[in-house]
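Notebook entry, cofactor series.
This is the third protein in the set we're modelling with a bound small molecule. For this one the ligand is (S)-Methylmalonyl-Coenzyme A. I'm keeping the input format identical across the series so the outputs can be compared line by line later. Sequence and SMILES below, as received.
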Amino acid sequence: MASLRSLAKLTNSVAISTRTMASHPLAGLLGKLNHVAIATPDLKKSSDFYKNLGAKVSEAVPQKEHGVYTVFVELPNSKIELLHPFGEKSPIQAFLNKNKDGGMHHICIEVRDINEAVSAVKDKGIRTLGEKPKIGAHGKPVMFLHPKDCGGVLIELEQE
Ligand SMILES: C[C@@H](C(=O)O)C(=O)SCCNC(=O)CCNC(=O)[C@H](O)C(C)(C)COP(=O)(O)OP(=O)(O)OC[C@H]1O[C@@H](n2cnc3c(N)ncnc32)[C@H](O)[C@@H]1OP(=O)(O)O
Ligand SMILES: [Co+2]
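Returned structure with ligand:
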């Protein structure tokens, strides 16, 4: 009897989670992981590291609005963004001064609508870095959230 009841409970919870997944493709505000970014003091060395493992690796592209060069490494389910400073006032320079070998810099999560997402996170007391979204590496609007309000992780939101 007890096991029948737990089977019924399990079936019910599977039904609920299937319904939830079907009607809410986003986990709340958050959609797919777009990329994990790694800051590097040597873009060629980092690019070669992933090429050597057989990955498809893009050319370096200067992102003048963001003060970085980007290289994208394609993975089956996501991307790695390699970052290197561009120009005098790169936002990643202080990070590289502290982390001489480079390291994980931010994660980028897709959202359906950047303006809605920005106002929702602001309502929750999460600081954004900058007032307005900028156009990111994929030609879509992005906004960064302060790492001190996100459990020590710099989060980039990108419109899907
Ligand atoms: C092209 C585009 C795209 O993909 O489309 C991109 O990704 S552009 C990627 C580059 N763009 C960005 O990162 C834009 C947003 N970033 C920023 O505005 C900045 O980098 C900040 C996150 C505010 C950090 O600025 P800065 O390094 O000058 O400040 P700071 O050294 O005083 O750091 C303040 C505190 O935050 C911590 N902190 C700094 N960078 C961090 C990071 N990446 N992850 C986690 N914590 C971090 C520091 O350790 C410090 O903590 P303690 O006080 O405890 O020591
Ligand atoms: Co990024």
